[in-house]
Amino acid sequence: MIDFRALHSLAQAGRTDEALARWRGGKPKRRERPLWHTVGGQLLASAGDLVRAEHQFRQALKLEPRNLGALVGLGDVLRQTGRERAAIKPYRRALDQRPRDPVLSINLALCLAHAGESDEAQRLLGPIVPGVSDPRALLQCATVMRVAGDTDSAVTLLERGLTRSPNAAPLLNELGLVRQAAGALDAAAASFEQAIAADPAGVPPRNNLGAVRELQGALGAAETAWRDSLARCPEQPEVQVRLANVLRELERPVDAEALLRETLAAVPDFVAARHDLSALLEEGNRITEAREVLGDAPAEHPLLLLMDARIRRREDDFETALGRLAGAGFDDPVLEARRLRERALSLDALERYDEAWNSLEARAPLVTRPAVQTEHDGWLAGYAAHGLTRLEEAASLPPGGDSAPVFLVGFPRSGTTLLGRVLGAHPGIAEMEERSPLDHVARAVPGWPSSPLDPQQAPALRQRYEAAARERFPAAEGRWLDRMPANILHVPLIRQLWPDAPIIMMLRHPLDVCISCAMQEFRPNWLTQRLTTFDDAVVAYETLMTPWPTWAGTAGAHLVRYEELVSRPRATVAGVLQFLGEDEDRADTMLAERHRAPAARTASYFQVDAPIGTASVERWRHYASHVGTAANRLGELGDALGYAMPDSGGAEPSA
């Protein structure tokens, strides 16, 4: 007979590894098997191995469907791995057995809030919150408030808890998450670091610190945080996958591939690792290997089915891709939105444009719109009001030194990746893969852009930029090419810091970029989170691009139109080289050698390596019957930027 109490005692004493070893060596009798699976799941979960823990809980429930410990454990694992909607069912079944359990009520409320059912979540919490004094319960209630978007109430609850337990690492960790949700990333990182100081062995705050550093673009710091976490708890496949994605961003695809293969070898049924490894190989144009990684798995999981359809589209097998995507759709709205997007891309390639548009329209209400970072909202308002003044001030400033970067800006999908790849083929230019340090610099300028930059501060800010660039691209040599479309927002700051820096502005027909944005799956940042649908992209284009006609003359940027780049590539690139003071005769060589750079890590990752052509010029004409209202809304701005709009009517994009 297995001594389950001894296993629990070992786990409570922090000797989880020893408890797991004894559990694995146990030989349960038939009647003990549900409890054996349940205890194993609990031990694995406490060790951070949530994938294997989930398997044990499910095995227990197969044998004993009303097993309370397994129901709670499965709900906890699903919640902790971001599958809150799936966790609702086991939590409800557990709460049916223990209807007055406040912890179960709070956990169920948390999952309901994540699933968008905030009314029921608040109903569950209503009777509980006023009498809560236990810091752990306050922590859970605060988490519900955070997920529901009420960060002020969340902070109030956490302050109640911290009054009782000032050094409670879980409370400090949750405070970091609340601050992160409010867009205060520096304050969030500080809270996570406090949580780590309070509990040096803590794993969750290290994982969360890694996530914040990734959002801030400090990928080296994110890697350090996640490696520290894995050193303390190696069996964290979810963290291994996140670390692999950071390694991809750091242009270390070999390391990322090795880590993903290691993860899959340890946990063969881990869907995220299989998907991400296949995606990594596909992005590197290793299509056959990407398909081999999927194997027969696509029929088993929607995420892998989507990856299979994407590979078939890459192989120009559009009809088969559509066949894979046929049917009633997915229950998960996030996956269903991805299915509809993938379907639209294949229909577009088959020139079935009305059907493609209908898929995009069906996708729109399913798309989640994460809260954007509040600092960018402030910058947008500040630049709209004061951007021109800041640019005019910069005209009288002295040069910013010999090490001024080259800045390539423009709205997403305007051609910055293509031009960046060409310029990156120059031996004296080091291209940044859309990981600009400018946000990092802007955060250090008090009152910017409403207040002017103190010229005495400029040298330190340039050094801050240089240090961040070196951290992100330690092996880069030559002149920096800071290619980040969203940096159009920061043109006044660029001019204040480097009055003589070359700025290249990419333009493309406004309707073309908005349609293209609606069909992309972007890496998330403050701008791409505003581009989730066509209507969203139209609003974002109007917001971000409206100042440009006023700024253009003062900014001193070199204008490049996408339409000219793809129709007259040599002449256009030669013009850019002349603007940069480089040898124009290199244009042909650079165009030919753009393929030698590492695979692009943007939404254009495979299109930029295709032969340059004009197939995407005036793409909007295929959708002319659907874009009339957007054309009316952007008409005046389009004229100012040099693009004519069609005349038509329709429904106004929502702001």
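the 2nd protein, sequnce then structure:
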Amino acid sequence: AYGAEAKDEGLRGHELKATLFGEKGAKLELGTIKEVSGNFEGFGAKTGFATGQITMSPIEISAGGAQAKVADVEIKDIKLTSPKYTDGKGTDVKLDSANVTAVHIKDVVAKFGEVTDKDGKKSQGMTNLDISGLKFDFIGAKGFEYTGKTTISSSESKTKTIKAEKAELSELVFESLTHDFNTHITKLNANLKKTSVTGFMASFGETISGKTSQTELFGNIEAGSMHADLTLTGTKAYGEDWTSVDGLFELTDSKGLGLTNMRVVHKKATEEKLELGVLDPSKTGGFDLTGLKVRFAPNGTMYVEFDELVGTNLKLKELKAGGATVEIPLVKLKKAAVGMQGQAPKQAFDVLGATLKELEVQGIKVTYEVDRSAPSAPGKPGAAADPWKLDALSTMSGNLKLYVTDAKWNIDADVSVPIRQGSIDFDEVEIEHLFPDSAMGGDHKGIYIDGLGLSGLLFRSHKYEQENMPGLIPETVEFDGENTYIDDRGSLNLRVFLESLLNEPSSPSAGGKKPKTLEELNQINLSGEVTLGEDVLGTSKNNVTLSGRNVGKNRISISGMRLGDNLELRMPEFQASKANFELLGKAGETGQINANITLAVTGLGSGPDASGHLKFTVTLMLVDGVVRDIKFGNVALASEAALRAQPVPPKEK
């Protein structure tokens, strides 16, 4: 080997020969070498190796030995045994074994002279290497493992581990490959026809102030053709070795890249865990990505575009008791542009800005079990940090119908509740049953029912008690000098009332007080239809603005035979003109949203389960839906030009 660092241990060959010819031995002909084997160690690498037949055109030596050129080289049946590499700074790579069926090399030019390494030391060695054509027919590898660690600051670090049981690459062709050993610049233009990786695992961890979040990805990878045109520059930044990347990587055929039999586990710094896996094990599940283009910039940023990312047969669940489960038969993300950073030292990985033309979903099912008996966590006093806004309820209208079986008094009742402009006028509520009908109203104690058709207080019972209830306009009581009578039973503004419930400051559970059973809900049948207004629903940070009321959008059909057993709300034509959201600490927005939504609540009136807890289940079904024109973060940075204009980390010689 050339240079003081490298050494060849036990190099062996069969049918080796060399012939010098030409003026002053300017050419060296090795002929055909049947096989070569041995061990290599140097530059942080160590491996055993063996080859089959090697055929090489004469080596042309010129410029007084400062340049060597070979027109053609073919090496067959290359095998590497237990290759390893370490940089001594936290990056390690190892393989159980690797093999290459054949390597074809065209027009290799090597130049020699004085070389300055990355630490400034000078020596004699190869200064430039230029290869005009390099083709690997087939590469196979087993037992691949990469580990790396990057320290961002004294309290923040990133770790990365990548493993694969087996990897196969077909027809890897470098149209050109050059390296300058003084400037530490490598340029390559390469194409790869096909990739297959089985038993793939990638783990990415980030530690901040002693708390670690980690994402693990498992699966198999199949990819069609891809292309890279890159410039890699070895340098230092913030005292750390760093290879900056500039150029393009892209998937170049319709097959794209597929990830199957996949599983993703994300552990938050709070120890909470999420798992994304296959929904139906009898079917293929995973992601297919097409039209991917990644443009790297020397400042450590990346501009990522893709035509479509399709997820099929997936399931997401929280790994905790009663955690939510999300079934995802189909989700499509179309025409994305993403600006990212995180390649350079001291750069935390971050999505700076992104745009997505369309998000389409089908058959999404979210299931969440609520344990009413579970102790509530102590809350922070004061108003909600992100208060709810239910402005769309201000113009809500419709009619609800309840049929109540009153087991206590053996009286059944039909209750009609009209809703107009977001309010319930208690004078319009009808409670019909045997004997004189009852009346509903509101006073300073809450919402009541007066029985037996009497307007006085003798048979009054409060069904919902709260002093000075928000949104409640209490009854008007008149006295004519002899009698007291109710002139107006009052009304309830649903927006104000529900906002107050949602925004009420949280507090610890009251001394472990057990919740009441809601078995009386099993005596109620509920039906009806309401239409929401064209306004905001949600919180100040996460909300939708409803639209399309004049064409029949946002009508909610409500049904509940035995309300405590099953309540179902259907909104087949949900429409919002826009939405706002917050994700990863960044704001986002969307264009129009259309969806077919069903919400079901089951078991609300059930008794305690085997553990003595009162539980019910909430299920949200998104039959189909489309979200258009999604924007996230600083959208101005979702462009290649804007990313390249970002500051470059200071480099050191």
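The radius of gyration is 35 Å. The first strand starts at residue 7 and ends at 14.
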